Each structure stands twice: as structure tokens, then as C-alpha cells.
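Quick one, C-alpha cells below. Sequence please?
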């Protein structure tokens, strides 16, 4: 006697204009899922016209296109509420994995909501914090499972978690094997410090520009400072700051680069510096460790959690500490065994391992729903 396949659907319409950490995380998980599925399990990606091409190479997953605009958030939420219920019912979906808030009402299946970070609850965002808190509280109350990529974010969500709310599950990010260098470069040449991430206020890039400028007092010819990431409103200000500090000739802003160029930049960096004030995970830090490079991170968000004991954790508001750390990584390159330790740490976080954890969460939600127990 045959049983109906269990169907998991993933809402894959995160903003397509920028290759954000959330989008890259979704890519890594989706690509690692198919070999882990049981014979009676299927995955369908719900894509929008804007995100369809991003997932066209995903094998082992079917695709259903819906007219859901990734942004602005109010239009996306309205389209989800209008289109998802009938689509999920028609497809016979057992579990929907939603990558953004708010949670649409009256969904005909179990729901798993991924909360990537809680920056909307901080002064780093302009939108009203009470609105973000209300959306998070409602999701925690109505979802069947809640996923977050780090213990840091899980702790903050737990403070909002109502009684009888579903458990908060940690599904960390991973790193693609292509980021591991077989022979880490002990002394990059020509030397440069690297930052990977969008140019936005929460990345705290002023500190990095100032710390880099301070190196001139400690060394006559300091390494260059290279930024890789799409401009989210900070490019002009950072260039102006570097001009004021007299280091504009040593600062490069490369905008977006493809994966092959990014891997090369990681492998050749003197150090990778990430002074962000808030990260729900911090994928660039993990990728830099996979390349065996020294990684400097701020003592904020999930960054210390990601780098563990193999990273340098520095105060987010002290340029002098960053200048000193940058100088050490340049003047005193680590031996090869230290680079190997960083890579060993990065190997503990792989996409197949993260995908297996994600499947565990989906399966638990499906079993609960099959017993007639849901939160919505």
C-alpha cells in the first residue's frame, strides 16, 4: 500500500537584488537537501519571477512560481497572504518553511519560520521597534517551529517567547568546500585587509577605516583596505572619511564580485575584518576561516559564536584595539598549523550538516501536524 509523499515547500523569495547572507544561506541549504531526503519526501521551492533564476540550478527540487515581490516587505506580505493558502492546498504541502515575517494567516499546513536575526529590535533599524516586536511575537505564538541560525539570536527570541510557544531550533550556517584552500597562504602579497559584506550602518565600517588609518603611525606602508559588498548607503561617506584621514589611495571598494573572485580574495587576505554591530550568524567570518585566514570580529551579535577560539574578538567601539590587531596579523603571520586549526573549525559547520538539522525540524513539524497539533 503506497503512501502519499511528504511535501516540504520553501518560500524562496528573499530579496534578489543583493546576494545577502540570508540568500546565500538558503542556497547552501537547498543544494545540500536532496541527498538527505527519504524516498517518500519531496521539496518544492516557491519562487518569484525575481528569484527564479537564483534557484534554477537546484537539482532534486521542483519549482513553483508565484507573483510575490521580494520587496517592499508590505507588498510581499500582502501577496503571501493572498496566494499562499490556495497554492499550498493545491500542492498538498505538509510543511511550509517561510524565510521572512510576518506569518500569513490561515495556512493549511504546518509552518516553520526562519528568523535570521533580531536587528529590527535594535536602534540600528529605522522602522518602529514595536512593530517588529509584534511581528516576532505573533510568529513565535503561531508557527509550529521557529528556526534561527545562532544561539545568540535564539536567546533574544526566547525573551519574547510566549507560553506554550513552539521550540526555537538552531540551524547554523555552513561553508561550501570550495572556500577551503589546500595550502593557506602564510604571507599574502601584496598585502591587504579584507571586509566582505554590504556597505551599511550596522557593519560599523567607520571603525575599520579609522583603525586602518591609524596604522600609518605604526608602519610607513600599511596594507590596503579592500571592501567587497553592495552599497547600502555608506559608500560615499566611507570614501569621504578615508579622504579626510588621508588614506583614500589605500582604500578599494569593489562592489559585488562573483564566487570565484571572492574565494581568491579570501585566500590572499592578510586578515579578514568584520566589525559589525549585529549579525544573526556571520557567513563571511566562516568562509574566511575556511580559507585559513586570520579573522577579526567585533564582540557583538553571533560573530564570537561563529569564530570560536580560532578568531580574534575585539571591542566594537575601540579603533585602537583593531589597529593593534591588524598590525599583528600583518607583521607576525601565523604558522601553517594555526591556519589549519581555523579550517578544522570551519569544517564543523557544513551545509550537509545544517541541511540534516533543518530536515529534522521539518519532520518534527510534519509529525506534529499529522497528529492534529498545530499553532495556527
Amino acid at each position: 500500500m503506497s503512501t502519499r509523499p511528504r511535501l516540504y515547500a520553501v518560500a524562496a523569495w528573499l530579496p534578489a537584488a543583493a546576494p545577502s547572507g540570508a540568500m546565500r544561506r538558503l542556497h547552501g541549504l537547498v543544494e545540500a537537501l536532496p541527498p538527505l531526503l527519504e524516498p517518500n519526501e519531496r521539496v518544492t521551492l516557491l519562487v518569484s519571477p525575481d528569484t527564479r533564476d537564483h534557484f534554477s540550478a537546484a537539482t532534486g527540487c521542483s519549482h513553483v512560481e508565484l507573483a510575490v515581490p521580494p520587496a517592499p516587505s508590505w507588498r510581499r506580505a500582502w501577496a503571501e497572504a493572498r496566494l499562499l493558502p490556495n497554492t499550498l492546498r493545491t500542492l498538498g504541502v505538509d510543511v511550509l518553511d517561510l524565510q521572512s515575517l510576518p506569518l500569513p494567516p490561515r495556512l493549511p499546513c504546518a509552518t516553520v519560520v526562519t528568523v535570521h536575526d533580531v536587528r529590527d529590535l535594535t536602534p540600528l533599524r529605522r522602522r518602529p521597534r514595536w512593530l517588529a516586536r509584534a511581528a516576532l511575537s505573533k510568529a513565535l505564538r503561531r508557527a509550529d517551529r521557529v528556526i534561527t541560525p545562532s544561539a545568540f539570536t535564539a536567546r533574544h527570541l526566547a525573551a519574547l517567547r510566549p507560553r506554550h510557544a513552539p521550540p526555537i531550533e538552531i540551524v547554523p550556517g555552513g561553508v561550501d568546500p570550495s572556500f577551503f584552500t589546500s595550502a593557506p597562504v602564510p604571507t599574502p602579497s601584496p598585502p591587504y585587509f579584507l571586509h566582505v559584506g554590504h556597505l551599511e550602518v550596522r557593519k560599523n565600517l567607520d571603525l575599520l577605516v579609522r583603525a586602518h588609518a591609524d596604522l600609518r603611525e605604526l608602519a610607513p606602508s600599511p596594507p590596503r583596505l579592500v571592501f567587497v559588498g553592495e552599497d547600502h548607503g555608506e559608500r560615499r561617506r566611507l570614501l569621504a572619511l578615508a579622504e579626510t584621514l588621508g588614506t583614500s589611495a589605500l582604500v578599494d571598494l569593489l562592489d559585488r564580485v562573483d564566487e570565484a573572485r571572492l574565494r581568491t580574495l579570501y585566500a590572499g587576505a592578510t586578515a579578514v575584518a568584520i566589525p559589525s554591530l549585529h549579525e544573526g550568524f556571520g557567513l563571511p567570518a566562516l568562509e574566511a576561516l575556511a580559507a585559513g585566514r586570520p579573522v577579526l570580529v567585533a564582540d557583538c551579535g553571533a560573530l564570537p559564536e561563529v569564530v570560536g577560539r580560532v578568531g580574534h574578538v575585539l571591542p566594537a567601539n575601540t579603533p585602537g584595539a583593531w589597529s593593534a590587531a591588524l598590525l599583528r596579523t600583518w607583521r607576525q603571520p601565523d604558522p601553517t598549523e594555526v591556519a589549519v586549526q581555523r579550517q578544522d573549525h570551519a569544517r564543523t559547520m557544513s551545509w550537509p550538516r545544517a541541511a540534516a538539522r533543518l530536515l529534522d525540524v521539518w519532520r518534527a513539524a510534519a509529525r506534529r501536524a499529522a497528529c492534529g497539533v498545530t499553532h495556527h
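The CA atoms of residues 215 and 327 lie 7 Å apart. The radius of gyration is 22 Å.
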